Amino acid sequence: MTDLPILDPDSEYDVEEIEHDPPVTVRSLARRVALQVLYELDCTNHPPEQVIEARLNAQNPEDEKPERSSSRYVRLIVYGVLNNRARIDRAIQYFAPEWPLEQVAIIDRNILRIALFEFAVSRGVPVNVAIDEAVALAQMFGADGSTSFVNGVLGQAALRDGELQSILNQPVGGDISA
Length: 178
Hints:
Blueprint: H1 26-43, H2 48-58, H3 68-95, H4 106-121, H5 127-141, H6 146-159, H7 161-169
Helix pairs in contact: 1-2, 1-3, 1-4, 2-3, 3-4, 3-7, 4-5, 4-6, 5-6
């Protein structure tokens, strides 16, 4: 048997906290919060609005309310992804066929969902901005291969926009085979 350290609950332990650079824009902050919300919703059965409120409040000091535009954009992303998840997931599966969706890391899956929602479903964000923001989220929160994976899937989707729109416009449950 190996020698394991004796853990004393009364001892103090060093805890490593990872500090991230502050977001450059209100929308960048909203994407970070939306990613945290979608991650939690992917892992639990918590009500979306309750999770959104908790994450927004966690981002602000106790005496400050969340910035209104940030709060609105978080909700737009979260509910946009939730309402279009089956369509977005079908697109992810199409552009990453070697990775079954349930095997894609939860963080990567939700980064892809956010970016595809922004540039392909709502069409409210330029493709290059959505991809750059997604890669930044992958660098910040993902594993070692996350940035390449996210960039590759989104790059293929952007290059093949006609196919992407066709997939997104199919009725839920439609066949996506090439």
